[in-house]
Write a structure and sequence with these properties.
3-stranded antiparallel sheet, 4 helices, elongated
C-alpha cells in the first residue's frame, strides 16, 4: 500500500493576480495624481473610490490565498478526498472504484504559470463530479498516475481472480464435475443427447 498523496492548490495564480493588481493600481494612482485639469472636488472623490477599490481587491486576494492554502486533496489507494473552504469546511470523498474517467485541463493563464486542473468523472454527467483546482503540473501528473496505477492493479486483480478460481469439491474431498446435456442430431435425423463434462 502506497502512502497517501497529499496536495494543496498552488498559490502561483494568486501571486500573479496580486502583481497585476499592484501594477494596475500604481498606474491608476499615477494618472489620478497627474490630472490637474479636473476640479479638486472631483479628484478627491476619485481618490476615495480608488482607495476603497484597493481595499476591496486586497480582501479578495487574501480570501483567494486563504482558500487555496486551506484546499487539500488526499489521494490514497482506495479514495480521493477533497477538503475546501475558508470559513466553512467542505469535505468530499470519492472511491477510486467509482471513477469512470479523469482528465487534465489547462487554460491559457494556467499554462502560463504552470497550473492544471484535474477533472474526475464518476457518473458520466456532462460536468465532472470532482475538480482538483490549480495544481502544479507535477502534482497533476502524480494524481493522474495514481489513478491509472489503481485502474491497472484492479484490472490485473480481476483478471487473476478469473484464472485462479478454485474447483468445487464435495464433502469427501473428491472433485465434482459439472455435467450438461446438449441436444444433438444424430445420423438418421433423430434427436439424441450428448453428455459433456465441463
Amino acid at each position: 500500500m502506497d502512502r497517501p498523496l497529499i496536495i494543496t492548490s498552488s498559490q502561483r495564480l494568486v501571486i500573479l493576480w496580486a502583481v497585476t493588481a499592484g501594477v494596475l493600481f500604481a498606474a491608476i494612482g499615477h494618472t489620478l495624481n497627474d490630472s490637474s485639469s479636473r476640479s479638486a472636488r472631483h479628484s478627491a472623490a476619485l481618490a476615495v473610490a480608488f482607495q476603497d477599490a484597493k481595499y476591496l481587491v486586497a480582501l479578495i486576494l487574501i480570501y483567494a490565498a486563504l482558500w487555496r492554502a486551506r484546499s487539500r486533496y488526499e489521494i490514497s489507494d482506495g479514495a480521493i478526498a477533497c477538503t475546501t473552504g475558508v470559513f466553512f469546511r467542505k469535505r468530499r470523498r470519492i472511491s477510486m472504484a467509482q471513477i469512470q474517467d479523469h482528465g487534465m485541463e489547462r487554460n491559457l493563464l494556467g499554462a502560463f504559470v504552470g497550473l492544471t486542473d484535474v477533472e474526475i468523472d464518476c457518473s458520466g454527467k456532462i460536468m465532472p463530479d470532482l475538480v482538483l483546482r490549480q495544481l502544479s503540473n507535477s502534482d497533476a501528473r502524480a494524481v493522474h498516475e495514481r489513478i491509472n496505477t489503481y485502474r491497472r492493479q484492479t484490472a490485473l486483480r480481476s483478471q487473476s481472480n478469473l484464472h485462479s478460481q478454485p474447483k468445487r469439491q464435495s464433502a469427501k474431498g473428491t472433485r465434482l464435475t459439472a455435467v450438461r446435456t446438449v441436444p444433438t442430431i444424430v445420423a438418421g435425423g433423430r434427436f439424441g443427447d450428448l453428455t459433456s463434462a465441463i
